[in-house]
Amino acid sequence: MALSTSATADHIYATGLRNQWHPVLPSSFVAPGAMRRVTVLGEQWLLFRRADGTLALLADRCPHRGAPLSLGKHLGDRVACRYHGVEVATDGTVASVPGLPGCALEGRRLVASLPVREVAGAVLAYFGDERHPEPVELTVPAPLDDPEIEPILCYAEWQAPWRYIMENLLDPMHGAFLHRESHTMYDGDTTAKFRVRETDRGYFFEKTDQRGVNFDWVELCRTGVDWVDLSIPYPPSAGPGGAFGIVGMVCPVDAERTGVFFWRYRRVSGWQRDTWRFLYRTLIEERHWAVLEQDRVLLEALPADADQHEHLYQHDLGLVRLRRLLRARAEQQSASAPPG
């Protein structure tokens, strides 16, 4: 059962693109035998984990009278609506109607249930439309699927549009100014020249006259889910593992809120892996949250129409390329949607 997408391109651009995977929440937020209401793309969903650990994502709406299933009771492999006790299985099928056993609702798949997958401590789900209900192929970011790399997930929710956060990630130059006082981005020139370099999965936006000094490059990747990869040089005092990588994804909660997912990673194994985790938890993590806080404060302060009153220059080629890509996808999805 696919969702109808008859929205305008402006609405899709504001609330998030469809026909792709999106991160939803950290896996740890939903324990076995628990369920949690989530908002994604401006819609309410029920993230449900069975006692055996299997996850499901259901539309948070009982097919009987529309009451939120998230207010209901977890029954192990199904949820019972609190209003009239209607039981819905994790595939969206009405399993039982206690008030009228054998009625026509039973056995029908009346609740949307989306494909889900857990990746490196996060829950990803596929959000399609009526013409694209089947999930596209998902290729997990290589740093999250390599036994020689140790990723650590950091999650937060920011009161800022998802596209502003993506644009911030595609803007390496802000590291030399906004994060100038940080322990890793204090070095390097505050002037630079950039180029866009296309790849088979997206594009690089990189400095042409500096590498390995500051936040000098970022790659946008489209592999069924949109993500970015970047690298920050690390001093020897930060322990083994070389440069500090970040894989970033965003979850468009609605037009004003965004879930941000940052996996911090280094290529380490054996005792070096243990050292990296120890240093991160005891020393480095607090510093990194301080850097993220700088981003959060600035992005939440941007007015909603900030992108309508800009005067861009060469350093903004990466975000211009991103906007064109996202806007084209929003217009394509709107144009292909059936009439509402």
Automatic annotation (TrEMBL):
Q: Which InterPro entries match?
A: Cholesterol_7-desaturase (IPR050584), Rieske_2Fe-2S (IPR017941), Rieske_2Fe-2S_sf (IPR036922), VanA_C_cat (IPR044043)
Q: Which SUPFAM superfamilies match?
A: Bet v1-like, ISP domain
Q: What are the entry keywords?
A: 2Fe-2S, Dioxygenase, Iron, Iron-sulfur, Metal-binding, Oxidoreductase
Gene3D superfamilies, sorted: Naphthalene 1,2-dioxygenase Alpha Subunit, Chain A, domain 1 (3.90.380.10), Rieske [2Fe-2S] iron-sulphur domain (2.102.10.10)
Does the keyword section mention Oxidoreductase?
Answer: yes
| UniProt entry tagged with the keyword Iron-sulfur | yes
List residues of the Rieske domain. 21-125
- Classify the source by domain of life: Bacteria
Coiled coil, from the record: none
Q: Which GO terms describe its molecular function?
A: 2 iron, 2 sulfur cluster binding; dioxygenase activity; metal ion binding; monooxygenase activity; oxidoreductase activity, acting on paired donors, with incorporation or reduction of molecular oxygen
Protein name (record): 3-phenylpropionate dioxygenase
* Protein species of origin: Streptomyces noursei (Streptomyces albulus)
Q: What is the lineage of its organism?
A: Bacteria, Bacillati, Actinomycetota, Actinomycetes, Kitasatosporales
